[in-house]
Amino acid sequence: MKKNNPKDFAIELRKGGYSYSEIKKFCPVSKSTLSYWFRDIKLSEPQLKRLKKKRIEGAQKGTRVKILKTAKAIEEIQRSSAKDIGNISKRELWLMGVVLYWRERLLNKNDNDLKKGIRFTSSDPHLIKLFLKWLSDVGGIKNGEISFDIYIEKNNRNLLNETVDYWADITGFSKNNFPRYYVLKKSKRSLLRIRVKASSMLARQISGWVNGISKYC
User: Which run of H or of E encompasses 12?
Assistant: First the structure.
């Protein structure tokens, strides 16, 4: 069949089980025109199966494209938004650490810290880094005053050495600073608890700062 006859060529393609979108690549006419040309065509079972397969593939490709497009848009927004932060002042860091500690410890009315000193637990390495920076820059806490406890899921005890290496790398502390670990029954991720020696006074200050924020709100 010669391609210089668009209608006949389109009909041949349709009889071959090609979809409208595929045919339009060779015959740039409207979908309504194709529908009119194909109105009397009866497709066989193999042809219908091919069209169904192409529709599924098209839908899957469209979904992948949409996912990639969305991911790219999210990444661009995150990159642009990160620039909004700029430099963080000491006062901003101070408030960030107070609110972080409020959420992690004081929200649950944990008053032990007021007597025994600061405890902070998280599985998020970024929060751990942030709180360690807060302790150093705001609280004036030295590295020698800090120790750590690791919480690990019971089925992962054989990964303890890897977990210690992981948290040592995150915190920048020697592996000797992780002498204790505790077994968890349900958690699937390791947790790290920061403990600050003789820090009950700082814990009480944080509690007061939280009260100040509460009154402002």
Answer: helix 6-15
102: how many CB neighbours lie within 10 A of its CB? 17
Q: Please, what CATH class does the domain formed by 90-216 belong to?
A: alpha beta
Residue 120 pairs with which residues in a beta bridge?
194
Classify the C-alpha dihedral 93-99-105-109 as positive or negative: positive
The set of long-range contacts for 44-50, using a CB threshold of 8 Å and a minimum separation of 24, is 46/17, 47/15, 47/16, 47/17, 48/17, 50/17
* CA dist list (Å): 167 to 77, 79, 144, 158: 30, 27, 17, 16
Specify the pTM. 0.67
Mean pLDDT by 10 residues, the chain (217 residues): 71 82 84 86 78 80 83 88 91 94 76 82 94 95 93 79 93 92 79 91 90 88
Q: For the chain, give every domain's residue range.
A: 6-80, 90-216
**With pLDDT > 90 as the criterion, what percentage of the chain qualifies?**
34
**And the tokens for 61?**
């490709």
